[in-house]
């Protein structure tokens, strides 16, 4: 897993990768990589995109990589090209495991990861969003799917004759709960963009307050609560020199 991915997000991405492509980062839909004898992790992003239409014709889908990136996703056309533009990629980057992790993290954030960990998106809502991106994941509640109404545990794309959920709703809920706990136990480890957030700067030093004799704190009066020390504004008492006190004693 790319080191820029936070602990909670890594749990989600590992789960998706193991479900979508258990054979790893070099996977082509229907294990086409074995039939073609190629390793797409050594190809550039442009090379992968150029070959995806041929994979669709031969294997039935353009999905490839650990997260099964499609040239035309089921609900967002031109996904890889979209990612390329949004991430500022040139297309000359290798389709390496680290790049695939970062691209999948981009999709995760697009699907509401930041809102989920901040508590602005429910688990069921986030799971629905993930199910729209990855057809092997189930919805957690009855909802209107792509083709028809789908029940808890079914793929969002159930009824299209191709897709079905490969894991249970209970398993997804448990995974998301672990991811949320991991993220909250490591606050600030990674920013949304994948870079470590700096520690907060210490508070500025404050100069010592004026503690002249005329501002000595006095105890608060009894019978009530004080919001802070009461400062006396009376002038400090004047003390006579010792020799004047001695003369006064002798003349007494």
UniProtKB/TrEMBL annotation:
Region feature Disordered, mapped onto this chain: 182-237
Annotated Gene3D superfamilies: 1.10.530.10
Ranges annotated as biased composition (Low complexity): 219-234
Domain of life, source organism: Bacteria
Annotated protein name in UniProt: Uncharacterized protein
């Amino acid at each position: 897993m790319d080191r820029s991915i936070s602990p909670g997000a890594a749990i989600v991405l590992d789960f998706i990768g193991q479900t979508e492509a258990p054979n790893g980062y070099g996977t082509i839909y229907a294990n086409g990589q074995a039939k073609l004898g190629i390793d797409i992790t050594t190809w550039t992003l442009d090379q992968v995109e150029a070959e995806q239409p041929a994979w669709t014709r031969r294997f039935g889908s353009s999905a490839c990589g650990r997260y099964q990136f499609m040239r035309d996703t089921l609900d967002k056309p031109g996904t890889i090209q979209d990612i390329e533009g949004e991430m500022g990629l040139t297309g000359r980057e290798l389709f390496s495991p680290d790049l695939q992790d970062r691209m999948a993290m981009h999709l995760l954030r697009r699907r509401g990861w930041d809102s989920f960990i901040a508590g602005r998106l429910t688990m069921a809502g986030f799971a629905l969003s993930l199910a729209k991106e990855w057809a092997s994941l189930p919805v957690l509640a009855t909802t209107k799917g792509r083709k028809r109404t789908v029940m808890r545990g079914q793929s969002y794309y159930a009824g299209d004759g191709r897709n079905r959920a490969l894991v249970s709703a209970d398993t997804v809920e448990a995974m998301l709960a672990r991811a949320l706990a991991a993220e909250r136990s490591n606050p600030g480890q990674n920013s949304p963009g994948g870079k470590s957030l700096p520690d907060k700067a210490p508070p500025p030093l404050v100069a010592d307050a004026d503690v002249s004799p005329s501002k000595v704190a006095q105890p608060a009066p009894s019978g009530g609560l004080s919001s802070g020390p009461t400062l006396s504004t009376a002038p400090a008492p004047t003390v006579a020199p010792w020799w004047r006190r001695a003369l006064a004693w002798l003349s007494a």
